[in-house]
């Protein structure tokens, strides 16, 4: 699986109108840009009226409520109807649960959605449940404790305190003592405490077709800042690939997703998370030859996924940096949007 074309083959199917949520974050932003390059029309949706994805050329920008807002489902249904949306792809984790709840409604309206069932979504968005599922399947994952279980943490264990339902590396803290973890549990929303793992960090970009067959593209996270791999390199390792595939099967993953983990100095492979969305560093996967987004679109619209077009070259690197897209007057942007009768 480590050899493939030198360039990602372009999608040649029917142009589609696809809504991508979370275009203010790196995964949704990158996915939007890739879909546009493939000739699709993207409804760029985000709760932040200044989301960077709104500035991409040719998008249809739409400000939507937060996924936790009671109006979220109603607004999404209206936008799908009014804008003739053909499919929705979630770019951030919070959108997964309400979209899962809307699955039957969206299907009846002819809107495609390719995410697993509610139990699988919960297993991937609830870190405590994810630990339980992987442990039941014999898959190595960081030991995890609830705040009331801190006294059970072995002496000398380095720890990570993070939100149980967190995402995007927000509110993540590293500590060396149980006492510090106990204090942080008073500050972090819905906290859990995990064993800190060291080693070579990796991401697996995955596409699991509707029969459960996965394609897995591996890349080292050579340099990570604020949860984003700013330098990464493709590689292949059958042991890592096998554990990633077992993880996908254990949680019942379907569609586009990514798995993260570590390979320790002694060769131990530990899975840390599975996200049911595209990864922020996926452009490296496409640069290495895998037609990840094109084949996702195929599967999204019920067409076969061509796994032969998801092979890739190892030793390809990618670097990321923060770029200023636009600077301007917010009031002018709002005035222009109001005069057009549309969202900014």
Tag the structure with descriptive keywords.
single chain, alpha/beta, Rossmann fold, D-amino Acid Aminotransferase, Chain A, domain 1, Dna Ligase, domain 1, 6-stranded antiparallel beta sheet, 5-stranded parallel beta sheet, 24% strand
What portion of the residues fall into strands of 2 or more residues?
15-25%
The name of the CATH topology of the largest domain is D-amino Acid Aminotransferase, Chain A, domain 1
Helix content: 25-40%
How many separate structural domains?
Answer: 3
Description:
It is a single chain. The chain has three domains: 17-113 and 324-340, 3-Layer(aba) Sandwich (Rossmann fold); 121-125 and 198-319, 2-Layer Sandwich (D-amino Acid Aminotransferase, Chain A, domain 1), CATH 3.30.470.20; 143-195, Dna Ligase, domain 1 (2-Layer Sandwich). Helix content is 29%, strand content 24%. It contains eleven helices and 15 strands. The chain has a six-stranded antiparallel beta sheet. It has a five-stranded parallel beta sheet with strand order 3-2-1-4-5. Strands 6-9-7-8 form a four-stranded antiparallel beta sheet, sandwiched between helices. It is globular.
